[in-house]
Amino acid sequence: MDKAQDIARLVESTISALGLELWGVEYAPRANNSLVRLYIDHAGREVTVDDCESVSREVSALFDVEDPINGHYTLEVSSPGLDRPFFKAAQLPRYAGETLEASLHAPVNGRRRIQGRLESVDGERVTLAVDGQPFSFDFAQAAKIRVKPDYAKLLAQPGRANGKAGAPGDTE
Hints:
- The protein has 172 residues and is an alpha+beta fold.
- It has 2 domains: 3-78, GMP Synthetase, Chain A, domain 3, CATH 3.30.300.70; 89-147, SH3 type barrels.
- 22% of the residues lie in helices and 36% in strands.
- It has 3 helices and 8 strands; from the N terminus they run αββαββββββα.
- The protein has helices spanning 3-17, 49-66, 151-155, and strands at residues 21-28, 34-41, 73-78, 99-108, 111-122, 125-130, 133-138, 142-147.
- The protein has a 5-stranded antiparallel beta sheet with strand order 7-6-5-4-8, with no helix packed on it.
- A hairpin with a 5-residue loop joins strand 1 and strand 2 (34-41).
- The protein is globular and about 50 Å long.
- Mean pLDDT is 89; it is low at 162-172.
């Protein structure tokens, strides 16, 4: 198991106790100052700056006790945002029909970068419609998968004329 997964297991119950969901963890080890980035979400409303501050405060206290990172580190807490990254295949189904961008570790059918509409998720198998054709790969083959937001569509929504997309998971 990698360090990001260890951190996720450590912080998940603390974040849940605050009424939030741990969306994912990114860990970037560095010689002088490692980076721990926590993405939090809330299914019923937008994530606020106060949510991020609460999680940061609680997780910092937990890290002081558990000491999961060797040396100095920076802790960042944010919402996944409109272009949210996905950390597990189980997060994908609710985004069926959305356009996703994927970067693969190694080429599949001669392609490493793919953009297409999410057709289906069957366990760990992801199928995108790419140029009108199904393109399937295993979630583990992806280095990164993100939503590609349709900003024009978001800004055209009623009440969005101020330029704020305001989708669930956004912070202001």
